[in-house]
Specification:
The chain is 70% helix and 17% strand. The protein is elongated, with a radius of gyration of 22 Å. Strand 1 and strand 2 form a beta hairpin. It has one domain. Strands 1-2 form a two-stranded antiparallel sheet. 4% of the residues are buried. It is built from 2 helices and 2 strands, in the order ββαα. Helix 1 packs across helix 2. It is α+β, with helices and mostly antiparallel strands.
């Protein structure tokens, strides 16, 4: 595994991470997205400290993740049902 060490900043705090080279772009993009969200919350809402902004960003991304997981599960179930129907139709047709 090709691991590298990178430095990223989230909410003006540096973090040193060891990740695979393949993850680097995704991790950097994720940090940028989090920082953008924090900036947006800072401009729109009153807050005591950055922890409040981080909590709101985490809540938003966790909520989005749960919604995405729910949609994927629904699509998987729907796809499974349709494939089962198609299999049954093909099996019935081949038996005829």
């Amino acid at each position: 595994m090709d691991e590298i060490t990178i430095n990223i900043n989230i909410a003006d705090r540096p973090y040193r991470l060891t990740i695979t080279r393949e993850e680097e772009e995704r991790v950097r993009k994720a940090a940028d997205i989090i920082n953008d969200r924090i900036r947006n919350y800072a401009q729109s809402y009153a807050y005591k400290d950055r922890q409040d902004l981080l909590a709101m960003a985490a809540l938003q991304y966790a909520t989005s993740s749960l919604l995405f997981e729910s949609e994927v599960a629904f699509r998987d179930n729907h796809l499974t049902e349709k494939l089962t129907e198609m299999d049954q139709l093909l099996s019935n047709h081949l038996k005829s």
